[in-house]
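ERR on first pass: missing label on line 2. Operator R.T. fixed the label and resubmitted. Corrected input:
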Amino acid sequence: MPKLFMLGLLMALLLFISAAAQPPPTGNLDTAQSASGVAAPPKVTAFDTPNDAGGSITIQWERSPDDVFSPQDFAGYDILKATSPQGPFTKIGEVPGGSRGPDPLTRTYMDNGTKDGVLYYYAVDAKAFDGSSRTVTSAPTTSKEQWFNSSQLNLFIAVIFLTAAILYYISSAKAGKKLYIRKIAGLEAVDEAVGRATEMGKKIFFIPGTQDMDNVQTIAGLTILGRVAKLTAEYEARIDVPVSRSLVMVTAREVVKEAYLKAGRPEAYTDDMVYYLTDDQFGYAAGIEGMVVRQKPATIFYQGAFYAESLILAETGNSIGAIQIAGTAMPAQLPFFVAACDYTLIGEELFAASAYLSHEPKQLGSLKGQDLGKLVFILALLIGVIIQVSGIFDFSSLFNVVGGGE
Amino acid sequence: MKREVPLIICATVGIVLIFQYFIPAEPFGTLNQVFSDWFQVIGAFAIWLGALNLIKVSGNNVYKKRKDWPYSLLIIISFFVMVIVGFFFSGGRRFQDQGTAFSALYDYVYSPLTSMMFALLAFYVGSASYRAFRARTKEATVLLLAAFFVMLGRVPLGDTLTSWLPNWLHMSNIANWIMNIPNTAGQRAIMIGIALGTVSTSLRLILGIERSYLGGE
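pass 2 clean. output:
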């Protein structure tokens, strides 16, 4: 099976290379120049804008020699459109002269007002302060929608590869294969933290971050809440979950309620355990800070997405001597949590927590697939460094996704 | 059915949203925006759930004279003052417009309070740094040294002190090297882990393997 993955990796690399080497799709060519005091653009090309939902044509032209050599006398370009080569041409936009973008000798303009299937002719007028000259495309161009965004081919392959790896390890785990998962100190300490609060007869606070349910970190935080709430129910401790989003409140209630039911103590659950404070970031921080100082919980969990409030919360918890377990995938907040908390789940550990705590083979299998993805990244980094340093080709361009198609 | 329906919705929406990322053609091209809009609409309605819960919990605290009940009373008063002023004392204008009583409360009460909370961070950074930078272990010593070079390299004094050294040993260059090479490498390693973790978690949610957010195992 490892051979199969290596083959897959090789194919992925080849596809990356072919994607990177593909020239941009071109449409038709230029013709017809009209003379005046200023030189017309030597070549005008129009083509369907790639990787879009249709309704757009890109016009590309070589800069007028007057724009290149005497820019002080050059006024810019007018872009015109018609449905027949004879016109009438209607002005749809203008572009200033000068060098812009990666190619210093060409300029582009995107006409986002086209109707798919309709044939268009384009003209570019080079304008000096004393006149203008026109170049018209010789053949018509039409726009159409695309069914695959080729600029994201590399990402697509990566997603397919990662998904296949995760599914493979999930099925292996289901088949009974033993998987080794390294110990995560922060998660090993959950039992101890809940136990400590029980012994001290104090509360446990669970803070699921300041983001809404559309953030995967919040979902990861709530999955941990389920395990913590179950332990709390079993130990007969008290848990408080102050939230900053209404939808998180509704979901967290469901999670805690179900955890108490599973622990066989449904009567111990009350809706008051999960309550809303405010959507405001610092209002939320102030509210929790006040409660922490007044109620002095023994244990505080911070699991989810946090911004600047992370340090305010963690330092307050630290000042009252609470045992604190944090977990976030916000890289800028991690140092704060590391400095102020007893344990911190760093980035991926937050997402691994649910699988780790559940000990379910299916979930643990997904972690193993994730590890294979990491191995591929490490290999890509090593190969990339060698190729990039040796100057064979620009390896980093294989990973360009954003804006790759336009 | 209580479990199955949310799982089916989650799987369908998840798969469609993955596809829409790679398919520009309609209707996929605009689906992300459509779903985001729906989320905003649902979120806006849900705000009332939060507001009502806040009033209910605070009201109970006041009614039952629980510990620290005056804070709950303050919450209720603040809430209703903002609502009443916004609805009834805007003089026929929109409540957010400049010059209304609501905007005065916002500018002269709410904003300073928020700024005050944000400003507290400076003190917390000081106390957290004090603990983190104590050279008790090898790692903490490396952290302390890195912090020393970066902080000194960010102020003119750093370069003045090292002006007699070769250019590459000037404090600002050392600070830039620390930030651009080891720091960036560490950040990227964390980012790659986060990206893979996000994909893995999303896949578990879509496939219904991870269902604890619905209250299940």
